[in-house]
Design a protein that fits this description.
Two copies of one chain form a homodimer. The first copy, chain A, contains nine helices and ten strands. By secondary structure, the first copy, chain A, is of the alpha/beta class. Chain A has two domains: about 25-95, Arc Repressor Mutant, subunit A, CATH 1.10.10.10; about 105-215, Rossmann fold (3-Layer(aba) Sandwich). In chain A, the strands form two sheets. A seven-stranded mixed sheet of chain A has the order 6-7-5-4-8-9-10. The first copy, chain A, starts with about 25 loop residues before the first helix and ends in a 15-residue tail after the last helix. The relative contact order of chain A is 0.09. The first copy, chain A, binds a DNA duplex through α1, α3 and β2.
DNA sequence: GCATGTGAAGTTATTCACAGCG
DNA sequence: CGCTGTGAATAACTTCACATGC
């Protein structure tokens, strides 16, 4: 039985905003992608999409998309498709965009500086509200209009500012210490760019972005091609063939 | 039948360096992590690790680690563990680090600039050898000692330089065009930071890093906690509990 | 008629648990 | 003995295929 543990009263509507469904982790990241695509569609004036179209624009197949959306309940119209605006709203709610999200970034070095200025975050509902660093040269300065504060201020500032998400872009050796400070400040979601494994209480969610790992996976495939082997077990490909 | 499809004529060589095993995609990214940890261990003077230790330091459980390594053949000693140096060498080979990898980065804006200066790449065997941009202000200048060239030069420069991996850090709208140029130049592995779906021939491997998606996944979990729900189906957690 | 929503089947990945070897 | 290596069991995820309902 692999079926979604259907949590009791389904309450299709009324205004029952909460089927309390257990969304698979793999689905969550795709929902974020669908949400971006829906935004583009809406800007383009599209009012309705079929699963086929939305899936195509998101790089997945339509069955997967429908299954993903089914975890949120039924929001499509048979024979027609999905209303772009209302599906967008539904996804925003599901992905926590109706709560205010406030992001703190620790480590304003090379990468951190770029992240602080990355317009993609604010544009997508994740304004970086505070910057932290240990470097006294930087503390007190402003980057992209945001003042850099000293790492030791993390506890107060994060609590005051209602920070929900912390990003760590420090050198590896500093990351755990910073992480501990964030956790102590009540931050329960952390995006870690430092190439180290963070230890956290298990009510804290950590996601790691490791750029070297990404390159290494690509290098593996380069090597495979030269070895002439059929490489990997996988099958993930809907790319448009030239 | 889940067993490795054993690809026909196995060992062309004398000393069986290649079982021609089909490494699962999920395993590949973890191998990259193990490789990093092994490097750290070696620098710390450690000569032998058990699967338990290496797994702990990598954030996975030991059964998974052993299974992962088993795809490369047997390199451990029962009752003892793995020799750090030789396992490191084995992984480097498997991950294509014995081929020369040369990385081209397209888009030297906010994020691209940071990537160009990211020491983690060169340090881990992925020197960024060439930068490209369309901005005439940038073309001709140097960043981190690397000259910025015009995007239209991609074909020649990539071919000459033997570029094996392309990184795209342009704004979304430019990404597909850049991607086409890279592909035309023979680049078969691309790391895409632009928030768009790239179309490529299916002999080209694309990996996408979407920072907003990462944040959104975290936001989802933030929202879940406030909803008090048991959230997700998943179970991916080996974080050290405080 | 047509596209959604979903059980059921298939595939891939993880974990268990223990045989086998140093 | 202890720790590796691995079949067998479990779980997660994907795809199929079709009944369902607009």
């Amino acid at each position: 039985m692999t079926l979604p543990p259907e949590s009791g009263a389904a309450a299709p509507e009324g205004n029952g905003e909460r089927p309390a469904r257990p969304v698979p982790e793999a689905t969550v990241s795709r929902l974020a992608v669908y949400l971006r695509v829906l935004g583009e569609l809406r800007e383009a004036g599209v009012e309705t999409v079929s699963s086929e179209e939305l899936a195509g624009a998101s790089g997945v197949n339509s069955a997967k998309l429908r299954k993903d959306l089914s975890y949120l309940g039924s929001y499509g119209v048979r024979g027609v498709g999905y209303d772009v605006t209302s599906l967008q709203g539904r996804l925003q709610g599901e992905l926590g965009m109706d709560h205010r999200q406030s992001v703190a970034l620790v480590g304003v070095g090379n990468l951190g500086h770029a992240l602080a200025g990355y317009t993609g975050f604010a544009g997508r509902g994740f304004p970086v509200s505070t910057l932290f660093d240990v470097d006294d040269e930087l503390v007190g300065s402003e980057i992209n209009g945001i003042r850099v504060r000293h790492v030791r201020e993390i506890p107060e500032v994060c609590a005051e500012g209602g920070v929900t998400i912390g990003m760590i872009a420090t050198p590896g050796p500093a990351a755990q210490k910073v992480c501990d400070l964030l956790v102590a400040a009540g931050v329960q979601s952390i995006l870690n760019f430092a190439p180290v494994l963070l230890s956290v209480p298990d009510d804290v969610e950590v996601r790691k972005v490791d750029l070297s790992v990404e390159l290494q996976v690509l290098a593996f495939h380069v090597a495979r091609r030269h070895t002439g082997a059929a490489a990997v077990t996988d099958k993930t490909n809907e790319s448009v063939v030239s």
